[in-house]
Amino acid sequence: GAVVSQHPSWVICKSGTSVKIECRSLDFQATTMFWYRQFPKQSLMLMATSNEGSKATYEQGVEKDKFLINHASLTLSTLTVTSAHPEDSSFYICSAIGLAGAEETQYFGPGTRLLVL
Amino acid sequence: DAKTTQPPSMDCAEGRAANLPCNHSTISGNEYVYWYRQIHSQGPQYIIHGLKNNETNEMASLIITEDRKSSTLILPHATLRDTAVYYCIVSKAAGNKLTFGGGTRVLVKP
Questions:
Q1: Least crowded by CB within 10 Å, which of A81, B38, B72, B100?
Q2: E-strand spans in chain A?
Q3: Given the DSSP bridges, would you call strands A112-116 and A10-13 parallel, antiparallel or unpaired?
Q4: Chain B nearest CA to A14, separation (Å)
Q5: How far apart (Å, rounded) are the C-alpha atoms in residues A20 and A63?
């Protein structure tokens, strides 16, 4: 299957700082990537849809000025958590559309664990 | 996208087949059934998907009822590494956003 990577795998930062998370499709091109967030003992919640070369589409309740998404190439999307606060501590996961046999499907990255102190 | 219902948890014995049910009674004709699993502290892993026909790959088999209102994921020989939360998701296409429910927490016991 297609491989999606994320960097960093974990990050600890101070409250008020900004953190950038990268999502890469390693062996395929992805015009669409998705960003999810998962709090402890909860399921994944979609934050936004990232489209190469255009603005991201955010889910209701997700602040677009706080969670900046840039999808500048067909293999890279970045999520920047601006002015992070402890309540932003979470597991952030991206996904990209790749091929499973002859059909497209979503492949997920390994996730980035963010801890804001 | 149609909503799915899965049992919250189930245990199975190592080496035995694990049968994971999923109800999706409001599925529409152009919606696929996707299965993912999430091992602790990792991103979800794609397992299999299908539209109408039963599907099999190296990981699992997917059995979809004729009326498409339910499906079963079969792990033929469960191992301890199959312990995970398994999500059944219905979506029109892979390019659509996926809505994750609570999933089924599967514990494989020796």
A1: B72
A2: 4-7, 10-13, 19-25, 32-38, 45-51, 57-58, 67-73, 76-81, 90-100, 103-108, 112-116
A3: parallel
A4: 22
A5: 16
Neighbours of A31 (CB within 10 A): 15
- CB-based contacts of B68: which residues, under 8 Å, 6+ apart? B24, B27, B33, B52
Q: In the structure, what pLDDT confidence band is assigned to residue A27 with cuts at 50, 70 and 90?
A: confident
Vertex A72 angle, CA A4 and A76, to 5° = 10
**Mean per-residue pLDDT pooled into runs of 10, chain B (110 residues):** 90 97 93 94 93 94 96 97 96 82 96
Q: Tokens 């999430």 sit at which residue?
A: B38
Check B44 against A93: CB less than 8 A apart. yes
DSSP-derived secondary structure letter, B81: G
The shortest C-alpha distance from B96 to chain A (Å) reads 9
DSSP state of B30: T
In this predicted structure, what is the pLDDT of residue A101?
66
